[in-house]
C-alpha cells in the first residue's frame, strides 16, 4: 500500500481514499475486519462514501426549555429510547432485580453503575462501516453503594466489596438496530461473543516506561507489570486502530486506611478515609498502610480492544498518571499520534502526548505500541494569547535526579509533581477535549472552580462558579507543534443574572458546568453539563434547570439546548453511528443524593427515572442508563 497516503495527509487524512485503496483485495478486507481498523478509522475521520463536509452545518432543531422534571426531554420530532441501564445483562445473563438483590457474580455480567464516557465502534462489512450494528464501549465511573445493595453499606462484607468492584469499569456490548413492529429500535445482541465486563478486578497489563518500576511493584505483583482492574473510569478516547481508551479519574477515593499521607500521596489526594469506600476492609490492595504502591497503579489511560474479548486491557503509562478525564486522539501532520488529556481537579493541568513513531494504517496491530514511546507535554497559557507545550522528559527542564526524578518512570508516576516544576498553567478543572474536524482547533471544557481567588488570562473569572470553554490552534495547524494560539470560546452563566460576573457571554441558551464535549462529523459541537445536584435549580442556578445537552455552531457562536435530563443527574458520554442518525448518550446518577450515597430505605427519594419514563423498565432504584436519540423521520440528528 501507499504509506504516503497516511503520513503526508495529517489531520485532513482522507480515509475514504485509504479504505478504497486498502479494500482492493479480499486479504486486506479480512485484515481490516479482524483489526477493526475500518470501523475505527471511519468513525475517527468520517464516512468512506461521502466527502468530508465543507462549510459549517448549522443547527436545525427548535431549542427546548430548561426543565426541573424527572424526565428526559428532546426537541419535537425526536425520540428517546432506553438501551442499557445499570443491572441490565450484557449478554444472556441475569436480569436486574428491583431490590438490588443481584449477587456480586451476577453484577459481573450486568451493566455497571454510573455510565460515563462511551464510544460506538461500527461493524465493518465489505469495507463499509455499519450504522445499524456495532459495539458500544461504556465506562462505569463509580458506584452509589447506598443503592447497589438492598441494605446499602450496612454490615459491609466481602460480597459487598466484590459487588461494588464488579459495578465499576467498562462494558463492551454488541448492539443492533432492528425493525420492531412499525418502528426501528436498538437492542443488545444476546448472546454476544463480544459482550464483556471489565471491572476493578480484571487482570490488566501495565505497559510503557513505568511498567516494572520499583514504585509499581506490590506484594501481589513483584514485577510491577500486572494489576487487577481499572476504576474511576470517567471519559475516554478512541484510536484509529480500533481500540477504546478508558481514563482513570478519581482513583484516590478508593484508597483508605492511611495514618499520615506522604507529600506524594497528598499531591494525588490519597487521604485517611478516601471517599468513604470500604473496599480496603476486604481487599488489602486498597489498604494504603499494607500496600502503599497500589495507588501508583491507578490514574492511567487504559487501552481496550473491543474486538478481542479475550485480550487483557493495557495501562499505557507513557501518557502520565493523574486524574485522567479523557484522552482525545488526532494525528500530527507527519502521522504521529497526538493524545490531548486533562487532569480534572481544581488548579490542575492540560497535557498532550506525541508518539515517536507514525501510525501505519497497513499495520494496525502495531497501533497500541505507539502509545508506549513518545513525549508527554504540559500546557502553559500566556496572557498574550500564545501558549507553549513543555516536555516532561527526564534530563530536560530540570526534571532530573537533583529534583527528585531518578528516571522517566518516576516522572510518569508523579506526573503532577513534575508538571509543578515547569510553570504549567493551573486550570479551572479541565474535563473533555474535542478536536474540530474542520479546523483542527482543540476545545476543552473547564467545568468550574469556586476555589480560584485570582483570575488569569486563561481562567478569567475568580470564583468561577459556571465554567468556560477554552480553545487553541496549534502552530501551523500541526497537532505535534510546540506552541499554539488560544482564546476563550464561551464563558458560561445565566444572561439574566444581575451580577455581570455571573452572566457569562453565551449567545443562546443558558448553561453552566460544561463537561462532556464532542464534535459530530459535520462539525457541530455538542456540550453536556454537570452542575452539582447540591446547587442545581437553586440560587444562581435557578434559571439553568436540570443538567442538559446543547449544540454549538462554532462559527457563529450560537448555542442551542437540545436535551434536558431527569432530576439530579449528569448528562455525559456521547457517540454516534457513522450515518449520524443514531446518537448515543448517557444519563449518570439520576437522583444523586448529597454526598453521593443514597439511603437504601428511600432509594427513590431523588428520582424514579428511568422506570418513570419508559414502560416495561424495572424500577425500584434510579438507574444510570445509555439512551439512543433518533429523529422520527430517520434524519441526521442535530440538523
Ligand atoms: Fe468524571 Fe471530571 O468527571
Ligand atoms: Ca466528566
Ligand atoms: Ca464534571
Automatic annotation (TrEMBL):
It holds the Pfam family PhoX. SUPFAM superfamilies: Calcium-dependent phosphotriesterase. PROSITE patterns: TAT. It comes from the Bacteria. It comes from Candidatus Accumulibacter phosphatis. This is PhoX family phosphatase.
Amino acid at each position: 500500500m501507499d504509506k504516503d497516503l497516511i503520513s503526508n495527509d495529517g489531520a485532513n487524512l482522507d480515509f475514504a481514499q485509504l479504505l478504497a485503496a486498502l479494500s482492493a483485495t479480499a486479504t486486506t478486507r479480512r485484515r481490516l475486519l479482524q483489526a477493526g481498523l475500518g470501523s475505527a478509522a471511519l468513525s475517527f475521520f468520517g464516512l468512506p462514501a461521502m466527502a468530508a463536509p465543507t462549510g459549517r452545518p448549522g443547527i436545525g432543531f427548535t431549542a427546548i426549555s430548561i426543565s426541573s422534571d424527572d424526565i428526559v426531554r428532546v426537541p419535537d420530532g425526536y425520540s428517546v429510547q432506553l438501551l442499557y441501564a445499570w443491572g441490565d445483562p450484557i449478554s444472556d445473563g441475569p436480569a436486574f432485580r428491583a431490590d438490588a438483590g443481584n449477587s456480586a457474580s451476577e453484577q459481573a455480567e450486568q451493566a455497571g453503575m454510573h455510565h460515563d464516557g462511551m464510544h460506538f465502534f461500527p461493524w465493518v462489512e465489505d469495507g463499509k462501516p455499519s450504522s445499524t450494528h456495532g459495539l458500544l464501549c461504556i465506562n462505569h465511573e463509580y458506584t452509589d453503594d447506598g443503592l447497589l445493595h438492598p441494605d446499602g453499606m450496612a454490615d459491609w462484607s466481602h460480597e459487598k466489596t466484590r459487588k461494588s468492584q464488579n459495578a465499576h469499569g467498562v462494558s463492551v456490548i454488541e448492539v443492533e438496530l432492528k425493525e420492531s413492529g412499525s418502528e426501528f429500535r436498538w437492542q443488545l445482541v444476546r448472546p454476544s461473543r463480544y459482550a464483556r465486563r471489565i471491572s476493578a478486578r480484571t487482570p490488566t497489563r501495565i505497559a510503557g516506561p513505568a511498567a516494572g518500576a520499583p514504585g509499581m511493584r506490590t506484594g501481589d505483583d513483584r514485577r510491577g507489570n500486572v494489576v487487577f482492574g481499572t476504576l474511576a473510569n470517567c471519559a475516554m478516547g478512541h484510536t484509529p486502530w480500533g481500540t477504546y481508551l478508558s481514563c482513570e479519574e478519581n482513583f484516590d477515593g478508593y484508597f483508605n486506611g492511611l495514618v499520615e499521607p506522604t507529600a506524594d500521596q497528598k499531591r494525588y489526594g490519597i487521604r485517611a478515609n478516601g471517599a468513604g469506600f470500604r473496599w480496603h476492609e476486604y481487599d488489602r490492595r486498597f489498604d494504603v498502610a499494607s500496600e502503599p504502591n497500589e495507588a501508583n497503579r491507578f490514574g492511567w489511560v487504559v487501552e481496550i480492544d473491543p474486538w478481542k474479548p479475550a485480550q487483557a486491557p493495557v495501562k499505557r503509562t507513557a501518557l502520565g498518571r493523574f486524574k485522567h478525564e479523557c484522552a482525545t486522539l488526532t494525528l500530527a501532520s507527519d502521522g504521529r499520534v497526538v493524545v490531548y488529556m486533562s487532569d480534572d481537579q481544581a488548579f490542575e493541568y492540560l497535557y498532550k502526548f506525541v508518539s515517536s513513531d507514525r501510525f501505519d494504517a497497513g499495520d494496525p496491530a502495531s497501533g497500541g505500541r505507539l502509545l508506549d514511546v513518545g513525549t508527554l507535554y504540559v500546557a502553559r497559557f500566556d496572557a498574550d494569547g500564545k501558549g507553549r507545550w513543555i516536555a516532561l522528559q527526564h534530563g530536560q527542564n530540570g526534571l532530573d535526579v537533583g529534583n527528585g526524578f531518578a528516571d522517566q518512570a518516576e516522572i510518569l508516576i508523579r506526573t503532577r509533581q513534575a508538571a509543578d516544576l515547569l510553570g504549567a498553567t493551573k486550570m479551572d478543572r479541565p474535563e473533555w477535549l474535542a478536536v474540530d474536524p474542520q479546523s483542527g482547533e482543540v476545545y476543552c471544557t473547564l467545568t468550574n472552580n469556586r476555589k480560584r481567588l485570582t483570575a488569569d488570562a486563561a481562567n478569567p473569572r475568580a470564583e468561577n462558579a459556571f465554567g468556560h470553554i477554552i480553545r487553541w490552534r496549534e502552530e501551523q495547524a500541526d497537532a505535534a507543534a510546540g506552541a499554539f494560539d488560544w482564546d476563550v470560546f464561551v464563558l458560561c452563566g445565566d444572561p439574566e443574572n444581575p451580577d455581570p460576573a455571573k452572566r457569562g457571554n453565551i449567545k443562546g441558551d443558558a448553561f453552566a458546568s460544561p463537561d462532556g464535549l464532542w464534535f459530530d462529523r459535520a462539525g457541530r459541537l455538542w456540550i453536556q453539563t454537570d452542575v452539582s445536584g447540591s446547587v442545581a435549580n437553586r440560587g444562581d442556578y435557578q434559571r439553568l434547570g436540570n443538567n442538559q445537552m446543547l449544540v454549538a455552531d462554532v462559527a457563529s457562536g450560537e448555542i442551542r439546548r437540545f436535551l434536558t435530563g431527569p432530576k439530579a443527574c449528569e448528562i455525559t458520554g456521547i457517540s454516534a453511528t457513522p450515518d449520524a442518525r443514531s446518537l448515543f448518550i448517557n444519563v449518570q446518577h439520576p437522583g444523586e443524593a448529597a454526598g453521593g450515597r443514597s439511603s437504601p430505605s428511600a432509594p427513590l427519594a431523588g428520582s424514579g427515572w428511568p422506570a418513570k419514563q419508559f414502560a416495561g423498565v424495572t424500577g425500584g432504584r434510579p438507574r444510570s442508563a445509555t439512551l439512543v436519540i433518533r429523529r422520527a423521520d430517520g434524519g441526521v440528528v442535530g440538523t
